[in-house]
Design goal:
13 helices; six-stranded mixed β-sheet; seven-stranded mixed beta barrel; 703 residues; alpha+beta; disordered N terminus; Immunoglobulin-like
Length: 703
């Protein structure tokens, strides 16, 4: 192959790593209401048309007093590519908190307010957010998307064009945000009979601070907390008492039995990363707590995420502006409204959790995951393009534009909001950053300046078989479902005391017996058959072939921190779901399982992790073991005939000139691994690999 005079890629060999984050709460696809709403309502690629017909006097009353909380009846027509339906006796009222007083105030529609039990294709309410302070109208949707990708139970969104009556008073783009209610918690947690607390800013904020005398009546009387399901405030009172009044040893030992700590840390990591200051940490407001009755722990549910990605008001939450893109890890919440006097980094729950090194380390780990993957500009590029294209013809038209809109926003402000301001501009309130510059700056700042995790073990859940019909058998000769754990280190690993669970919130599921070790670069099979009397490696739970998550937690001495998880889709007989290659982020379905052996597909493939301009890792899998693999690149796709080498006559999917980036020997498993250093690869190049022995060529990867 020909070598270019200029070598743009300086590639070096790198090793395996493990413990990568992935989605945790399985997306609730098995819930009928959730599925129906996804099919008919939450359509991301189009704008739903909603036409409300209501009494003009009621409309004028609401516009004259946005703080009214009662519903009035109206008739609503809903039109998108799936439905054209009209409903009578729908409830409508203003909604929201600070934005109720805006020129473009939010609205709430209730389908069961006047018709008991009625739903609109699986949903009972619509929360039509005005996004009145965000010129892009996209930050909230992007933030919810990131929350879900991080495995946090968070709502879906879709855009609507709302017209009330003839449109002279209300007509414009709104964002429909999924309601957190009994349907939501049933979908995500598979139960709905627990306490559901809406935590908001009505008096002093939902800081989870103890208030004398601290009984249920104390918090029921506070408007900052509203129980939406059972009406019982005792659980909240007990939780706040534990958080604020338990001694250090009691708190450290027991907090994981009160709340799903990992999910909570993930939600806080997104708030920290995006500078989302309207949750618990900074301006204690806009979140839910749900008591999951199956695992008997609280789950934190984020809400109203529009104050993110550079949105600021100078005096809220910090005086004289905050550059959220360059805010450091240590002391991120110092001086927040949620802090007690002299309390340091935020409210007691967060401060006390971060006083535990294992939890602080995990938060840092998730920040790096956001920077490298889940909130990286390249990850969100397609969503940004979709929203900008979708709303471009509609943004700041209708009733709301210029002098009739907050901050005088016009269509030009929407167009420029994606890239302007290009740097922090405290005088450009409330949007002190453009969306893309914020994400680019934040990603680089976290990547280069935030601490790296020091406490992540080199083990991960590597393969799952949830319908074993004719594969391997256990000691009793039975075809039981199983999970494989992989040790990516060059030393054996003691797994004693770790916990394996099929419930994300249950960090103390089945305990791995004492003396259980995994050999260096080796594997361990655990049978998931709920028959723990059959042997030491039989877990006390079964898997379902319909799809679920499996989770590995540290021992009690490690505060039961989540080490690894793998969400498995629905599988057919003897299919496996496994990482590719072993220990890495990518996973797929295998028609044949590979117990106690490397995961493989039988194909020669090229995989990539990471994005330009950050470092990336390339994996050529299925190569000849211990033999060379060539990595080649070009600026364009094409048809390049190789000549003058051992593989003369093969045709690459690249266009001339083709450059040999590097030649690397595959390991004993047939995987060649390359690392592209930060800034070495320009965007837009194409890369392919060649097995120098068989002359097989891989698929093409675009940078």
């Amino acid at each position: 192959m020909r070598n270019s005079l200029v070598i743009l890629l300086m590639l070096v060999l790198t090793g395996h790593f493990s413990g990568l984050a992935s989605a945790q709460h399985p997306i609730p696809k098995g819930n009928a209401n959730w599925n129906e709403a996804g099919e008919f309502i939450f359509l991301e690629n189009e704008v739903m048309d909603i036409h409300v017909t209501m009494d003009e006097t009621d409309l004028d009353t609401f516009l004259g007093n946005r703080n009214l909380d009662y519903f009035v009846p109206c008739t609503v027509q809903f039109i998108n590519s799936k439905i054209d339906e009209t409903y009578q006796d729908v409830g409508i009222r203003p909604r929201g908190n600070s934005q109720r007083g805006s020129k473009k105030n939010p609205w709430k529609l209730s389908f069961n307010e006047f018709v008991q039990g009625r739903k609109l294709h699986g949903i009972e309410k619509m929360n039509l957010a005005s996004e009145s302070t965000d010129p892009s109208m996209a930050r909230e949707s992007l933030a919810y998307e990131i929350m879900r990708s991080m495995g946090v139970a968070a709502g879906r969104t879709n855009y609507v064009w709302l017209t009330i009556n003839d449109g002279t008073k209300v007509k414009g783009v709104y964002n429909n945000v999924e309601q957190v209610d009994e349907n939501f918690v049933k979908a995500w947690f598979d139960n709905k009979d627990g306490d559901l607390y809406k935590c908001r800013w009505k008096d002093d904020g939902a800081k989870l601070l103890w208030k004398s005398p601290g009984d249920a009546a104390t918090y029921e009387a506070m408007e900052d907390y509203e129980e939406k399901n059972t009406g019982n405030f005792q659980r909240l009172a007990d939780f706040i008492d534990f958080v604020c009044n338990s001694d250090t040893a009691t708190f450290n030992d027991g907090i994981k039995d009160w709340i799903n700590v990992d999910s909570f840390l993930r939600a806080q990591s997104v708030d920290m990363y995006l500078g989302q200051w309207d949750g618990l940490w900074i301006f204690p407001n806009n979140y839910y707590l749900y008591w999951d009755t199956e695992i008997e722990r609280f789950e934190y549910i984020p809400w109203d995420l529009d104050h993110s990605m550079g949105m600021d008001y100078w005096i809220i939450p910090f005086f004289f502006g905050t550059d959220w893109a360059r805010k450091s890890f240590n002391g991120w919440g110092n001086g927040s409204t949620a802090s007690q006097p002299g309390g340091g980094n935020g409210p007691p729950l967060i401060r006390r959790l971060l006083d535990i090194p294992e939890y602080e380390d995990r938060l840092a780990f998730y920040e790096k995951e956001l920077a490298s993957q889940f909130a990286h500009p390249a990850t969100l590029a397609s969503s940004i393009e979709r929203i900008s294209t979708l709303l471009a013809p509609l943004a700041y038209t209708g009733t709301f534009s210029g002098s009739s809109m907050e901050n005088g926003y016009t269509p030009n402000d929407f167009t420029s909001s994606w890239d302007s301001p290009p740097n922090y501009s405290p005088f450009n309130t409330p949007a002190t950053w453009g969306v893309r510059p914020f994400l680019e700056t934040r990603s680089a700042f976290v990547r280069d300046g935030y601490p790296s995790s020091q406490l992540t073990p080199p083990v991960c859940i590597n393969e799952i078989v949830s319908k074993n019909e004719s594969g391997i058998t256990d000691e009793a000769g039975e075809y039981e479902d199983w999970v494989e754990i992989y040790n990516s280190s060059s030393q054996s690993f003691d797994l004693s005391g770790y916990y394996l669970s099929d419930r994300y919130g249950n960090s103390r599921g089945w305990e791995v017996p004492s003396g259980t070790t995994i050999p260096a670069n080796g594997y361990l099979i655990i049978w998931c058959d709920n028959e723990d009397t059959q042997g030491p490696l039989h877990a006390n739970f079964k898997l379902t072939s319909e799809g679920e998550g499996v989770y590995l937690f540290k021992p009690d001495t490690g505060f039961n921190v989540l080490v690894s998880s793998l969400l498995c889709p629905a599988l057919n007989d003897d299919e496996a779901w496994g990482r590719l290659p072993d220990g890495m982020r990518n996973a797929r379905i295998y028609t044949a399982s590979t117990p106690l052996a490397p995961n493989e597909t039988g194909l020669f493939e090229l995989l990539k992790e990471g994005f330009v301009p950050d470092s990336q890792t390339l994996y050529a899998i299925g190569a000849t073991p211990n033999k060379p693999v060539a990595f080649v690149w070009s600026m364009n796709r094409g048809s390049f005939l190789v000549n003058g080498t051992r593989c003369a006559g093969i045709t690459l999917g690249l266009d001339a000139p083709v450059t040999v980036a590097s030649i690397v020997s595959a390991d004993f498993n047939g995987t060649a691994i390359l690392s592209v250093p930060q800034g070495a690869a320009p965007a837009g190049i194409f890369l392919q690999s060649v097995d120098a022995v068989t002359c097989k060529i891989s698929n093409i990867i675009e940078f």
